[in-house]
Write a structure and sequence with these properties.
By secondary structure, the protein is an alpha+beta fold. It has 11 helices and 10 strands. The strands form 3 sheets. It has a 4-stranded mixed β-sheet. The longest helix has about 35 residues. It binds flavin-adenine dinucleotide.
Length: about 375
């Protein structure tokens, strides 16, 4: 494995940093307070190639690999986790599903628009009563001639209201049959498809999370991704890659919280000296830095495997589980280092603290990651 930063990564890191300072930092607390989902930012990110990082150039994407993808998400999330989360969901889930399992016609139709952010993508697996246990989903698709009629609802969907195109997993077979689920592409404006309730969240408040509702929503057989009955297996493969992006998101938030803490610890004086000179604070910073380094190695290890088209299920679970738990610990310690100021909205760490918790939940909770890892090491 070669973890030296390549020229592309350096360039991307700097470009994303500049972009985040100019277009995100000045407004992010306003968006956070009002839960505004800033669609225009994603359009600008599309111009930079950040909405189709892994999409090959022939489909209008940046045609880059996972090292560059991880770098871009973590640099963005170092400033604002919400924007990092939305970028991850758009790239890895919706776009990633079409890229991996769409036919040539579907790729030609959707990827260029997704890669440039002309279309915003969503990916609907979760339902109100089936999160970790997604195989029990209740949303159905019934065949009617050359069409399928989708009925049900998907919950907690990133861009569930604002998306232009969604990949939707629906039951086409028996309950608990892993071959009983199929993936469909559904476009905004399709009769019977609409956004529902938008969630009022603890963190990641500028990333839209909403319900998607399907009422006798008719789509053509041409909208099926891959084969009928392959949806669940496809979704698990999409999540294998998606978890790398949540590890990158976690890494970015942890680095942002650490950077702020280091600066503050050197500036803040108590008992006549900077608090960084107290061993308790120095050791906290040392623990934070060590854990971030380890999380980064696991994240790049899974990115490396993905770049080489190797199986990544265990490694992406390692990375997602470890980096997300580190993210929460580092963000919590950051608030502690800031003391009372850390508990206010005048300093950045309270937002990192709130945003961090999503990382141990989305795209498979920490408990589910441990199940994935245990299953792999026990076989
Ligand atoms: C901000 C946000 C964005 C999201 N975006 C999307 C999206 O774009 N698309 C999408 O499809 N979904 C999305 N989700 C949904 C997310 O993937 C689920 O919330 C997650 O998978 C957990 O499901 P759940 O919330 O139903 O929790 P549950 O599955 O009900 O879990 C509750 C608790 O029980 C534990 N648990 C469950 N089963 C087991 C078990 N077998 N063993 C041990 N512990 C267990 C869990 O770890 C957790 O601690 C999003 C969620 C959030 C919060």
């Amino acid at each position: 494995m070669e973890f030296q930063t390549n020229e592309n990564q350096k360039l991307i890191a700097q470009t994303v940093r500049d972009f985040a300072e100019k277009h995100i930092r000045p407004k992010m607390m306003e968006w956070d307070e009002s839960q505004e989902f800033p669609v225009e930012v994603f359009k600008k990110m599309g111009e930079l190639g950040l909405m189709g990082v892994l999409v090959p150039a022939e489909y209008g994407g940046a045609g880059l690999g996972y090292y560059e993808y991880v770098t871009a998400i973590s640099e963005l999330s170092r400033v604002c986790g919400s924007i990092g989360l939305s970028m991850a969901a758009h790239n890895s889930l919706c776009t990633g599903h079409i890229l991996q399992f769409g036919n040539e016609k579907q790729k030609q139709k959707y990827l260029p628009k997704l890669a440039t952010a002309e279309f915003l993508g969503a990916w609907g697996l979760t339902e109100a009563n089936t999160g970790s246990d997604s195989m029990r989903m209740q949303c159905t698709a019934k065949k009617d001639g050359n069409e399928w009629i989708i009925n049900g609802a998907k919950n907690w969907i990133t861009h569930g209201k604002s998306c232009d195109v969604a990949v939707v997993l629906a039951r086409t077979g028996d309950l608990l049959d892993s071959k009983g689920i199929t993936a469909f592409v559904v476009e905004k404006g399709t009769k019977g498809f609409r956004g529902g309730k938008k969630e009022n969240k603890l963190g990641m408040r500028a990333s839209e999370t909403a319900e998607m509702i399907f009422e006798d929503c008719r789509v053509s057989s041409e909208n099926i991704l891959g084969e009928i009955g392959d949806g669940f297996i496809q979704a698990m493969k999409v999540l294998d890659g998606g978890r790398i992006s949540i590890a990158a998101l976690s890494l970015g938030i942890a680095k942002g919280a650490f950077d702020a803490s280091l600066k503050y610890a050197k500036e803040r004086q108590q008992f006549g000296k900077p608090i960084a000179e107290f061993q308790a604070i120095g050791f906290k910073l040392a623990d934070m830095a060590t854990q971030i380094e380890a999380a980064e190695l696991l994240t790049f290890q899974s990115a490396d495997l993905k770049n080489r088209n190797q199986k990544v299920t265990k490694q992406s679970a390692f990375a997602k589980y470890y980096a997300s738990e580190v993210c929460v610990r580092v963000a919590t310690d950051a608030v502690q280092i800031f003391g009372g100021y850390g508990y206010t909205k005048d300093f950045p760490v309270e937002k990192f603290f709130r945003d961090s918790k999503l990382c141990t939940i989305g795209e498979g909770t920490s408990e589910i990651q441990k199940m994935v890892i245990a299953r792999d090491i026990l076989k």
